[in-house]
Write a structure and sequence with these properties.
The protein is an alpha+beta fold and 448 residues long. The chain has 3 domains: 100 residues, Rossmann fold (3-Layer(aba) Sandwich); 70 residues, Dna Ligase, domain 1; 239 residues, ATP-grasp fold, B domain (D-amino Acid Aminotransferase, Chain A, domain 1). It is built from 15 helices and 20 strands. The strands form 5 sheets. The chain has an 8-stranded antiparallel beta sheet with strand order 13-12-9-10-11-14-19-17, sandwiched between helices. It has a 5-stranded parallel beta sheet with strand order 3-2-1-4-5. β12 and β13 form a beta hairpin. α4 packs antiparallel against α5 and α7 packs across α8. The protein is globular, with a radius of gyration of 21 Å. The structure holds adenosine-5'-diphosphate.
Length: 448
Amino acid sequence: MFEKILIANRGEIALRINRACKEMGISTVAVHSTADAEAMHVRLADESVCIGPPSATQSYLNIPQIIAACEITGAEAIHPGYGFLSENARFAEIVAEHGITFIGPRPEHIRLMGDKIAAKQAVKSLGIPTVPGSDGAVGSDRDAQIIAAEIGFPVLVKAAAGGGGRGMKVARKPEDLSFALATARAEAKSAFGDDAIYLEKYLERPRHIEVQVLADSFGKVVHLGERDCSLQRRHQKLWEEAPSPALNEAQRESIGKVVTNALTKLGYLGAGTVEFLFEDGAFYFIEMNTRLQVEHPVSEAITGIDIVREQIRIAAGGAIEFDQSDIVISGHAIECRINAENPFTFQPSPGTITQFHAPGGLGVRFDSGIYSGYRVPPYYDSLIGKLVVHGKNRNECLMRLRRSLDELVVGGIDTTIPLFQQLVRDPDILNGDYHIHWLEHYLAAHGA
Ligand code: ADP
């Protein structure tokens, strides 16, 4: 097992990884920008190294500085968390070239899944159902029109290099397609430096269902059930639950088998998530994330498995010590993403937190690096905490979430808490009756 791990991230996920390390008796190195010198992830790690100015490109994305921090401190492995360098195949290779272990999948799988067109083709050949769409990248607008007519409108134009919902445009009818292609290409070019795009059938009322997997270097692949992340705004998840209120036991078992069989054939290693849209009883692959996800705690709550601990054990060459049949889904869990944003306009709201009180009690987990007096910097993602609640069943979980949200105080800045306080009382949410476009409609109807 490793003696020292460097955590190449910040905020709540750096704390989350630090916690797993501590419980495994591993010492930790935090890295930070000058803007994060006072941050909790720096204070709680055993050692810390300042790697650059506030701008992420010069700090949390600065590969030479991170490698140097590893060498200075003698860290043997790097956990990249999510975002930043976590899905950068070249980074994973550089880490390995320096004799350091990358806690994550093999670079070739990171690269494969990072190209959404190649990923779709690969998983299709492994037996995973995909959304009907173009066979690869589309060339001219004329070609796109022909393919779109075959798929049938509405169609979705998506960026091959996509992520975070960027470079995605809907065309409802043939006349809209040229504009959607041009805007998706421009957005993809500026966000990813790659304007390759492809077409997919636009699904009108699907749910977003994703399957969490773990795979070790001995060929064992297990899944931890699914998460339902259908409550999204601009393709960004806000509320995630496990298990999905929309799946029955047979559907859960069947998609779990499809995913574990495919990843066994692929020779996948580490933690990963296979994402699907689910409509009228059918699953359609959209992408695979080759990393730890923000919403992983809901799966931890219902399975009792510490996913970060497993990632570290697997990276150190350990075997997964349980079988699929040992994984029992118990109760229900919901996560709310507490963002430093206006709850209805979603304008970022950096600034000083003047008051803070975390909720507690049975089944309540609050993953966050904030404290009273903490200044939320304007340079990074607006996620400042995750409230994760677990109950014996969905009803108990919802009641617990309601009271936990009412206990949670974050003063001095705007947060998404008031939105969740409304959602947890909404009849559709209470019935589990929602899809990926539900929240946008709700926000439009409630004055957003
Ligand atoms: P990204 O990598 O940018 O997150 P994804 O392919 O994971 O892109 O899609 C993000 C979200 O966009 C999905 O959760 C869903 O809400 C929406 N989406 C993606 N593909 C489709 C589709 N074919 N039809 C309708 N919505 C879609």
